[in-house]
Structure formats: structure tokens, C-alpha cells
Write a structure and sequence with these properties.
The chain has helices at 11-24, 48-61, 74-84, 91-102, 106-120, 152-181, 198-206, 249-254, 256-264, 279-292, 313-322, 337-350, 364-373, 394-403; strands at residues 2-5, 33-36, 65-67, 87-89, 187-192, 223-228, 234-239, 267-273, 300-305, 326-328, 353-359, 374-382, 385-392. The protein is elongated and about 90 Å long. With 405 residues, it is an alpha/beta fold. The strands form four sheets. The chain has a six-stranded mixed β-sheet with strand order 6-7-5-8-9-10, with helices on both faces. Strands 11-13-12 form a three-stranded antiparallel β-sheet. The relative contact order is 0.09. Strand 12 and strand 13 (385-392) form a beta hairpin.
């Protein structure tokens, strides 16, 4: 494995994250090398001398692959493979490989294949017009396993086909969201850096059995569950794919349909692994991605998770005091969950809309929803109808206005 750093990079953070990515992909690290330079070499990124050193290191340890913790352009990757005579996989390709291992649903598999083809497309020149060179191992899962002779034209056709299928699935997801919107429940999305504990938190809050693993990108497909709050209200919470620093652009594009769950949510729960020494950098990476998704202005609850791994409880209390609408918890041991529930209740109540409407008597079912999913301030029965003043969630408010006399 090769760690490459530029001036201003947090070296320990990048090293730890790359090791976690390699572990998640099933790679056994046999040696590490480091290169720090102000600007990358145009031809090999690390320089010819360093590349020749990697050739010797790979031969000494009988390495099957050399991992780079940066994104290499096609020329750099090709030159490095020629010098080292070893497969070279950059950070983007490593992440794509992990996604290929984790994709369980049809939508997830299609999204990963699209991302892989978008990555491979500019790398075909100089390798012939074939993907048959790809064999087993890291960085080769997905379309490469078919060993088909695919030229660029056919890849473009496959990309167009995948985008069409993903768009069809996106329409189905939009329909599912529309159906959920008919329910008088606000919706929230659980976001956070990969392996921050999002799926564990959803399981604790909902009693679900979402797949959990202590590895990065353990789950890719969004899972939505109903969570009953202490005051009797309910919310729909969706566990989303984990974010990572410099998430490859083709992944953002391919997983856009999935990430729409974040854009369409009424509020967000941002889970932060407070036990990580680099939690601030991870928090900033998530916030940057939320800006790219145009979801950074939503009401957000900040959850400092894995508090059981932090000895300094004074630090936790200080963080909560300094961070609006935040709590610290341990999702693994279900500690601090009542405080989080209170935060969710307060956040939902802060989203209520005031209504002053006249309802026909045949719309009494809506009145019942106001009692269950809002605050009824006053209700007066008159011969001409029901005069209602209440605070309700926006979806119920819209239906009340449509039904009034």
C-alpha cells in the first residue's frame, strides 16, 4: 500500500482511513510505503524512483496489488503498472470494489456497475478495447468478471441502459415516497460518515434488524422504518449510505436516486463517531456532501455516537452544550436514547404549521389526525361545520386546507 500526501493533509487520518478501506475490501496489507510531495508527478504521481522502489517491494513481499490512497489518472495508473509489473488500484477503484461486494439489492448492483463503467471508460485507451484483461481480486469485481470483449461504443450503450433502469427504479422510489407522504408522519434521514453507527441506531430506535457490520460501507441500500416517539407520535426514519472524504464523483452520480432520500427528508439525524480521533474531519466531510446534495438547510439533530468509548464525559457535555440540537449516546448499548427521542420530538414539533380552518363534518377523520399528529388548540362545532385551530405537520396542514368548507 502507498500513502501519498500533499501539504496540509492530515497524514494520520488518511492513513487510518485507507487501512480501514483495505480491511473492508478483504485486503491483507503486507507492506506500506509513503510519499509526501507538494505536487504529484505527471507521469507516475510518485516519481519514477519511488515507482521502481515499489517494484522491488512488491517482489519482496509477493504482493498481488498495490493500493494508492489517491485518485490516479489513466496515464499514471498505466505507467505505474508497467514499472511495478503489479496491478495498481487507486482509492476510487478500491471504494468501488467495496461497493460491489456490499450491493445486495438490484438497484444497488445497477448503481455500482454504472459507477464502475464510468470509472473504467477513460482507462480503456492503451489497453485495447477489451475488459478481458481483468481477472479476480481487488478492483476487478462487477463488469470485469464477465470477460466480455466490450468496446467503448458498447460500454456507452450499457451505461445508457443502466441509467434508464436506475431512472425507472428512481420513479418507483418516488412513488413509494409519495405513498409515505400520504401517511401523517414526518420523515427523517440518518446521515453520517461510514461506520459511524447509523444502522445500529436505526435498529435501536425502531426495533428493526438492519444489517450491521463494523466495517466501512457495510450497508448501501436505504432502509426505512417507523419509529414511535414517547408522546405517541411516529416518524419514518431512513438509514442511508455512509459518506466518506472525497466520495468519488461517479458514485455521487450513480447513487443519486438513493441519496434523494436525504434531499426529500423533513429533517436529518447526523451521526458522528465521537470515538474517532478524526471526528471533526469526518463531520466536515458529511457537511460538505450535504451541501452538494442541497440538503444542508434542513433541521438537523447532531448525535455524538459511541460515547461509551470516550472516557472524558466532560468533553461530551461540552460538545452538546456548544452544538445546537445535539445529544451524545451509545447506540451499541442503547445509552442516551431517551434524550435523543426528546430531541426528535422537539425537532418535529418545531416543524408544525399553524392552521385555522373550517371543516365539513364528513372530514372528522382529519380532525382525529390532528389530535394524533399535532396540537389541537381549539375545536368548535357549529351548524355549518367544525372550526379548528391547530398546529400540525405540513402534509396534514395541506390536506386540512383542501378539505375545509
Amino acid at each position: 500500500m502507498v500513502f501519498c500526501h500533499h501539504e496540509g493533509h492530515e497524514e494520520a487520518y488518511w492513513n487510518d482511513e485507507m487501512r480501514a478501506l483495505a480491511h473492508s475490501a478483504g485486503v491483507r496489507i503486507v507492506a506500506e510505503a509513503r510519499q509526501k510531495r507538494p505536487l504529484p508527478d505527471v507521469a507516475t504521481y510518485i516519481g519514477k524512483g519511488k515507482a521502481e522502489m515499489l517494484f522491488q517491494l512488491a517482489r519482496e513481499h509477493e504482493a498481488d496489488v498495490i493500493l494508492f490512497d489517491v485518485e490516479l489518472n489513466p496515464v499514471q495508473q498505466r505507467n505505474l503498472e508497467q514499472i511495478t509489473q503489479t496491478r495498481v488500484v487507486d482509492r476510487t477503484q478500491l471504494i468501488l470494489d467495496i461497493f460491489a461486494q456490499r450491493a445486495r439489492s438490484r438497484e444497488g448492483a445497477l448503481q455500482v456497475e454504472l459507477a464502475q463503467l464510468l470509472y473504467l471508460m477513460p482507462r480503456l485507451s492503451g489497453k485495447g478495447v477489451t475488459l478481458s484483461r481483468l481477472g479476480g481480486g481487488i478492483g476487478t469485481r462487477g463488469p470485469g468478471e464477465t470477460k466480455l470483449e466490450i468496446d467503448k461504443r458498447r460500454i456507452r450503450e450499457r451505461i445508457a441502459h443502466l441509467r434508464h433502469e436506475i431512472e425507472e427504479l428512481r420513479r418507483q422510489r418516488v412513488h413509494q415516497r409519495s405513498s409515505r407522504r400520504k401517511l401523517p408522519f414526518p420523515s427523517g434521514a440518518i446521515v453520517g460518515y461510514t461506520n459511524a453507527g447509523k444502522s445500529t441506531l436505526l435498529n435501536v430506535l425502531s426495533g428493526a434488524q438492519t444489517y450491521v457490520d463494523n466495517r466501512v460501507f457495510a450497508t448501501l441500500d436505504p432502509t426505512t422504518r417507523r419509529v414511535v416517539l414517547p408522546d405517541g407520535w411516529s416518524v419514518l426514519l431512513t438509514d442511508t449510505v455512509g459518506f466518506v472524504e472525497n466520495l468519488p464523483p461517479m458514485l455521487l452520480e450513480a447513487f443519486y436516486a438513493t441519496l434523494e432520500e436525504v434531499r426529500e427528508a423533513d429533517f436529518l439525524i447526523h451521526v458522528i463517531d465521537i470515538s474517532s480521533p478524526h471526528w471533526e474531519l469526518q463531520r466536515d466531510a458529511v457537511e460538505t456532501t450535504l451541501v452538494e446534495l442541497q440538503a444542508d438547510q434542513k433541521p438537523t439533530i447532531t448525535v455524538f455516537n459511541k460515547a461509551d468509548c470516550v472516557r472524558d464525559t466532560a468533553l461530551l457535555r461540552q460538545l452538546v452544550a456548544e452544538t445546537p440540537n445535539s445529544v451524545y449516546i451509545s447506540a451499541r448499548f442503547a445509552q442516551g436514547i431517551p434524550h435523543l427521542m426528546d430531541r426528535i420530538v422537539a425537532t418535529v414539533q418545531g416543524m408544525l404549521v399553524s392552521v385555522d380552518v373550517w371543516l365539513p363534518y364528513e372530514a372528522t377523520a382529519l380532525l382525529a389526525e390532528c389530535y394524533e399528529f399535532g396540537r389541537v388548540l381549539s375545536v368548535d362545532y357549529h351548524e355549518e361545520g367544525i372550526h379548528l385551530r391547530a398546529q400540525v405537520i405540513p402534509s396534514v396542514a395541506a390536506r386540512l386546507r383542501e378539505s375545509q368548507k
